[in-house]
Specification:
There is one protein chain. The protein is α+β, with helices and mostly antiparallel strands and 254 residues long. The protein is 31% helix and 20% strand. It has nine helices and eleven strands. Strand 7 and strand 8 form a beta hairpin. Helix 8 runs antiparallel to helix 9. The radius of gyration is 26 Å and the shape is extended.
Length: 254
């Protein structure tokens, strides 16, 4: 998935300095070897589904701002979607934990169990699907084409504030690199960046010499311990290059 930003433009009341976060997700198929290994581990963390982990991540990071979640979720949602709830609406109505569902256009009309769970997840996080309801993809193109057939399993979703800034969403043609089609979303956002040279100019050169401090007892102890380290002794015996012998010593002092 690729997200591009239109430079120098603003998108009305939801733009400019407002923070937003892009979350890239891959949820492997249930029958994959990766999922099988996780199930066999039987640890508490491995027992969580990808959507459960995302919920935990959102709960532990409350300062993400507007959110765009993109990726291959291996979920088929048919033509279902979540009605975006604008923040101004929340001031007048009682917020619900599960906003109403709506329809979008999609060439894939299948809804599987993972698709239903994904719709529930999107509802809880106020995320709406761009596929099939955004300029550039008004027919809801397939995103994956392989020997099993075609489906829509790759999505771009966004919270209401960020949806206001979406200019277009497009599913491109297949490439030789994957059986999933590239997806592009263009946002109308203003941003600023710092040139690389400016950052380099602010950096200081690393010291050419290491300054010994007799008052630092901790430094002395680390130095003496590092001298007796087996790997350092071996390097000293095998190498006549002083710099090579000092590398592990400097690492141990860091």
């Amino acid at each position: 998935a690729v997200v591009s930003t239109q430079s120098g433009l603003t998108a009305g009341p939801y733009d400019s300095d407002r923070k937003f976060t892009i979350i890239n997700v891959y949820d492997s198929p249930e029958q994959s070897s990766y999922k099988a290994r996780r199930r066999s581990n039987k640890s508490e963390e491995d027992s969580l589904s990808t959507l459960d982990q995302l919920l935990e991540f959102r709960a532990n990071n409350t300062d993400l701002g507007d959110v765009m979640m993109v990726g291959d979720l291996n979920a088929r949602t048919g033509n279902l979607n979540i009605d975006p709830v604008i923040e101004e609406d929340l001031e007048h109505d009682i917020p619900t934990s599960h906003p109403g569902t709506s329809e979008r256009v999609s060439k894939d009309q299948v809804i599987n169990s993972r698709g239903s769970k994904l719709i529930d997840f999107l509802a809880c996080n106020r995320l709406s699907i761009m596929n099939g309801q955004t300029l550039g993809d008004i027919f809801g193109e397939y995103t994956s084409v392989n020997y099993n057939g075609a489906s829509v399993v790759d999505y771009m979703t966004a919270t209401p504030g960020l949806l206001e800034s979406v200019l277009s969403f497009e599913v491109l043609n297949l490439t030789k690199f994957s059986d999933h089609k590239p997806c592009i979303c263009k946002l109308n956002r203003s941003y600023s960046f710092t040139a690389a040279q400016v950052l380099l100019d602010e950096l200081e050169d690393a010291p050419k010499k290491f300054k010994w401090d007799n008052q630092d007892e901790g430094l002395k102890q680390r130095f003496l311990a590092a001298q007796n380290a087996p790997d350092l002794k071996m390097k000293k015996e095998k190498s006549t290059d002083c710099d090579s012998a000092l590398i592990p010593l400097l690492h141990s002092l860091a």
